[in-house]
Amino acid sequence: MVRILDLYDHPPADGRVICADEFGPLNLQPRPGRGGQMFYRFRNRKRWREFLGFLKQLRDSFPAGKLYVVCDNYEPHKKADVIEWCRPNGVELVFTPATRPG
To answer: Alpha-carbon distance 30 to 54, whole Å?
Structure first.
Protein backbone atom coordinates (compact mmCIF):
# COMPACT_ATOMS: atom_id res chain seq x y z
CA MET A 1 0.00 0.00 0.00
CA VAL A 2 2.88 2.37 0.79
CA ARG A 3 4.22 1.96 -2.77
CA ILE A 4 0.85 2.85 -4.30
CA LEU A 5 0.31 5.90 -2.11
CA ASP A 6 3.82 7.10 -2.90
CA LEU A 7 3.15 6.77 -6.64
CA TYR A 8 -0.08 8.76 -6.23
CA ASP A 9 1.41 11.47 -4.04
CA HIS A 10 4.75 11.72 -5.89
CA PRO A 11 4.17 10.77 -9.53
CA PRO A 12 7.46 9.61 -11.04
CA ALA A 13 9.15 11.92 -13.54
CA ASP A 14 10.08 8.95 -15.73
CA GLY A 15 6.56 7.84 -16.59
CA ARG A 16 2.85 7.70 -15.81
CA VAL A 17 0.79 6.15 -13.04
CA ILE A 18 -2.29 4.37 -14.35
CA CYS A 19 -4.96 2.58 -12.33
CA ALA A 20 -6.68 -0.42 -13.90
CA ASP A 21 -9.89 -2.06 -12.74
CA GLU A 22 -12.11 -4.45 -14.66
CA PHE A 23 -15.23 -3.14 -12.95
CA GLY A 24 -14.79 0.52 -13.81
CA PRO A 25 -14.11 3.72 -11.89
CA LEU A 26 -15.83 2.78 -8.66
CA ASN A 27 -13.98 5.09 -6.29
CA LEU A 28 -11.91 7.71 -8.08
CA GLN A 29 -10.07 10.04 -5.72
CA PRO A 30 -8.38 13.26 -6.80
CA ARG A 31 -4.59 13.20 -6.42
CA PRO A 32 -1.89 15.78 -7.12
CA GLY A 33 0.00 15.60 -10.37
CA ARG A 34 -0.94 15.30 -13.99
CA GLY A 35 -3.94 13.24 -14.82
CA GLY A 36 -7.59 13.33 -15.51
CA GLN A 37 -7.74 11.05 -18.53
CA MET A 38 -9.81 7.92 -18.48
CA PHE A 39 -9.40 5.01 -20.87
CA TYR A 40 -11.80 2.14 -21.02
CA ARG A 41 -12.53 -0.98 -22.99
CA PHE A 42 -15.62 -3.11 -22.93
CA ARG A 43 -14.96 -6.81 -23.20
CA ASN A 44 -17.20 -9.81 -22.62
CA ARG A 45 -14.46 -11.69 -20.79
CA LYS A 46 -11.82 -10.80 -18.22
CA ARG A 47 -9.03 -13.21 -18.98
CA TRP A 48 -5.29 -12.55 -19.07
CA ARG A 49 -5.45 -12.10 -22.86
CA GLU A 50 -7.88 -9.18 -22.53
CA PHE A 51 -5.76 -7.62 -19.78
CA LEU A 52 -2.61 -7.97 -21.88
CA GLY A 53 -4.43 -6.40 -24.82
CA PHE A 54 -5.39 -3.48 -22.59
CA LEU A 55 -1.77 -3.06 -21.46
CA LYS A 56 -0.66 -3.04 -25.09
CA GLN A 57 -3.26 -0.39 -25.86
CA LEU A 58 -1.96 1.73 -22.98
CA ARG A 59 1.63 1.28 -24.19
CA ASP A 60 0.59 2.40 -27.70
CA SER A 61 -1.22 5.42 -26.23
CA PHE A 62 1.81 6.38 -24.12
CA PRO A 63 4.89 5.22 -26.04
CA ALA A 64 7.41 7.26 -24.04
CA GLY A 65 8.36 6.64 -20.43
CA LYS A 66 7.58 3.88 -18.01
CA LEU A 67 4.00 2.92 -17.16
CA TYR A 68 3.20 2.12 -13.54
CA VAL A 69 -0.08 0.22 -13.66
CA VAL A 70 -1.84 -0.15 -10.32
CA CYS A 71 -4.10 -3.20 -10.34
CA ASP A 72 -5.62 -5.68 -7.95
CA ASN A 73 -4.49 -9.23 -7.31
CA TYR A 74 -6.88 -10.76 -9.83
CA GLU A 75 -5.14 -13.92 -11.08
CA PRO A 76 -5.07 -12.96 -14.81
CA HIS A 77 -2.95 -9.90 -13.89
CA LYS A 78 -0.25 -12.25 -12.59
CA LYS A 79 -0.20 -14.63 -15.56
CA ALA A 80 3.37 -15.37 -16.67
CA ASP A 81 2.64 -14.19 -20.23
CA VAL A 82 1.53 -10.80 -18.87
CA ILE A 83 4.52 -10.42 -16.54
CA GLU A 84 6.95 -11.45 -19.27
CA TRP A 85 5.51 -8.88 -21.69
CA CYS A 86 5.64 -6.08 -19.13
CA ARG A 87 9.37 -6.22 -18.36
CA PRO A 88 10.80 -5.44 -21.81
CA ASN A 89 7.98 -3.01 -22.61
CA GLY A 90 8.55 -0.63 -19.70
CA VAL A 91 5.44 -1.55 -17.73
CA GLU A 92 5.53 -2.15 -14.00
CA LEU A 93 2.50 -3.78 -12.44
CA VAL A 94 1.93 -2.49 -8.90
CA PHE A 95 -0.48 -4.74 -7.04
CA THR A 96 -2.86 -3.53 -4.36
CA PRO A 97 -2.46 -5.24 -1.01
CA ALA A 98 -4.24 -8.56 -0.71
CA THR A 99 -6.78 -8.73 2.08
CA ARG A 100 -6.74 -11.69 4.38
CA PRO A 101 -9.88 -13.12 5.92
CA GLY A 102 -10.35 -12.86 9.65
So the answer is: 23
Cβ atoms 91, 40 nearer than 8 A:
no
CA distances from 57 to 40, 67, 93 (A): 10, 12, 15
The pTM assigned to this predicted structure is: 0.78
Q: In 1-102, where do the E strands start and end?
A: 15-19, 66-71, 91-95
- What is the distance between the alpha carbons of residues 28 and 57, in angstroms, rounded to a whole number? 21
Domain locations in the chain as residue ranges: 2-24+40-95
pLDDT tens digits along 70-96: 999 888 899 999 999 999 999 999 999
Asked whether the beta carbons of 59 and 67 are under 8 A apart, the reply is yes
> Phi and psi (nearest 5°) for 10?
-135, 75
